Amino acid sequence: MSKQVAVILSGCGVQDGSEIYEATLTLLRLDQLGIGYRCFAPDIDQHDVIDHRSGEARDEERRNVLVESARLARGDVAALEELEADEFDAVILPGGFGAAKNLSTFAEDGADMVVQTGLQEALAGFYEDRKPIGLMCIAPVMVPRLLGPGIAVTIGHDPGVAGAISAMGGLHRSCGVEDIVVDFENRVVTTPAYMLATRIGEAATGIFKLVDRIDELMDL
């Protein structure tokens, strides 16, 4: 496998970590295309722990983002601080509320959010080297803070989140669940995934298109 992609996770579970279907579909499509990958996650405490049956917070419980991400990666996950952009050809960030809680403070602060320092440092090398960057679901909301203003992204068509992206200097493009938005100049690819998906098949169509486009951009 000559191409290598870094996949950045934010825990395990849609309400407090990475969206499991989005992460799995990303890894599946990379494997189908014969692209190698390695998973990374920050070695930090989760913002909170949510009971995924009831939707209620478990205030007494603490979990670690890296340890939880290992559930998704079948144990093969490295700390985000070990990610070196020059060892990979592209990077992809699945969504889930972990992107808004663990990788950034968007869930609490909206357009005033800050992004996790380690994530910003990790993505800087990819952006500076013009290596493709893919984000899905809520993760694209971080782009103005991570990469700078004026980059076109999508989270679907949620007016509140789209407004926050605009307030931070980003460019939001409305998009259907089965499609992608590509900023060719900045080599950023985004798709709504479970911001809109009601079935795993809907999410898969857009995610597969995102990975396919990342694959094409790696050749340019």
From TrEMBL:
GO terms for MF: lyase activity
Domain of life: Bacteria
InterPro entries: Class_I_gatase-like, ElbB
Catalyses which reaction(s): glyoxal + H2O = glycolate + H(+)
Alphabetically ordered keywords of this record: Lyase
Family classification: Belongs to the peptidase C56 family.
Role noted for this protein: Displays glyoxalase activity, catalyzing the conversion of glyoxal to glycolate.
Protein's UniProt name: Glyoxalase
Organism field: Halomonas eurihalina
Lineage of the species this protein comes from: Bacteria, Pseudomonadati, Pseudomonadota, Gammaproteobacteria, Oceanospirillales
